[in-house]
Amino acid sequence: MKKSLFPKFISILLLICASGWIGYAFYTRNVHYRETRFLFDTEVYIEAHGWEAKQAGLQVLDRMGDLDAKLNKFKAGSELDKINQAAGQQPVEVSDLTFEVIAQSLQIAETTGGAFDPTVGPLMALWGFGSQEKQTVPSNKEISEYLKLVGYQKVILDQANKTVYLTRKGMMLDLGAIAKGYAVDQAVQILKEHNISSALVSAGGNIYTIGRRTNGSPWQIGIRDPASKEKIVGYIQLENQAIDTSGDYERFFWANGKKYSHIIDPRTGYPAQGVSGCTVIMPQAAQADAFATAAFVLGVDKGLDLIEEDNSPGVMIDSQGQMVLSSKMKELLIK
Ligand code: ADP
Ligand code: MG
After folding, report:
1. What's the 234 CA to ligand 1 centre distance in angstroms?
2. Rounded-to-integer distance, Cα 313 and Cα 331, Å
3. Are 303 and 310 within 8 A, CB to CB?
4. Residue 31 has pLDDT above 60, yes or no
């Protein structure tokens, strides 16, 4: 009797251990990580699901915090501030991440014919879209003076030494239309390294989704109606893609019956007119961020041409509320 009890005891013990392990495995596989932070002067949200969701999520927030500290032009001592302070004097050595985002921004400036241009900084300050938000309409003379300090061709990058040089005193880099997207791309890279197969990352409306939601249904992203905070013009199902919107409804001011928004046409020196909202979907968030701004600057017709040339889904809504869709977007937008 006693002899036969022992193996039975062992097997029960093994069974308990095994079910405990399976239970633990099941539990960790379904780790759900959700967190909101205030970074890049906006709300950043991440949700990730999977074995390593928590470690991945924490690493993502670390990286995004680091990028915010490096790329904020208003933060004294940030890498961007150092570059701007040294304008017209000397090249500044920067980290790999900062170098990469600046290189990418100059490339997109070229592709968009300068509609997106990260050297728009002095014009932002002139129009009062600075940290103080005291906006005024400058004189034509001031605008033409400041335009001399704008132009992506006036930036010199040295790949070997990782330096950035703004060749004229007074020049100022402003990565406001690409930094959030770039941070989202970095987040996605980290999540993928941790084998996360279901996640959503958003930095002030720059959104990327990995895979599908945990219940297997697709992530659905609404496209806001520029005329009303509560309304959407439709929604799309987003899987392993980035979406971003540039709009004239968050940072703007009125003067002489005209609405001036925070997106400036670097070619004229004036805030872009005619578009109220522009949304694009692209494989990368930095690209989507910058292209949405570029299309906004180009206006409905040329903006849509840019989106079509790239064969991307895009929506443009003009100041009268008229909506036009690129051919790819016609297949995607659910009203
Ligand atoms: P937001 O970041 O407000 O969602 P955008 O992505 O369009 O909107 O970025 C707008 C920001 O980009 C501005 O606040 C400014 O910092 C910068 N910016 C403005 N005009 C341009 C431009 N033509 N090219 C590049 N950056 C711009
Ligand atoms: Mg953008």
Report:
1. 24
2. 9
3. no
4. yes
Name beta bridge partners: 255: 258
Burial state string for 258-268 with b = 16 or more CB within 10 A and e = fewer than 16? eebbbbbbbee
Q: Which of 110, 262, 273 most suits a substitution to test ligand 1, by most atoms within 8 Å of the C-beta? A: 262
Q: Is the CB of 293 under 6 A from ligand 1?
A: yes
DSSP 78: S
Which ranges in 40-172 belong to alpha helices (H)? 53-71, 79-85, 96-111, 121-126, 140-147
The class (CATH top level) of 71-166 is mainly alpha
* Among 40, 123, 174, residue to substitute to test ligand 1 (most atoms within 8 Å of Cβ): 174
3-class DSSP assignment, residue 299: helix
Radius of gyration of the chain (CA): 24
* Ligand 2 center to 132 CA (angstroms): 21
Greatest pairwise CA separation for the chain in angstroms:
104
Give the integer Cα–Cα distance in Å for 127 and 120. Answer: 11
pLDDT score recorded for residue 13: 56
Q: What is the rounded distance in angstroms from the CA atom of residue 16 to the CA atom of residue 253?
A: 67
Ligand 1 centroid – CA 262 distance (Å): 7
Residue 28: per-residue pLDDT: 45
pLDDT in tens, 254-278: 988 899 999 999 999 999 999 999 9
Q: Which letter does DSSP use for residue 264 in this model?
A: B
CA distance 253 to 55: 42
Closest CA to ligand 1's atom 22? 116
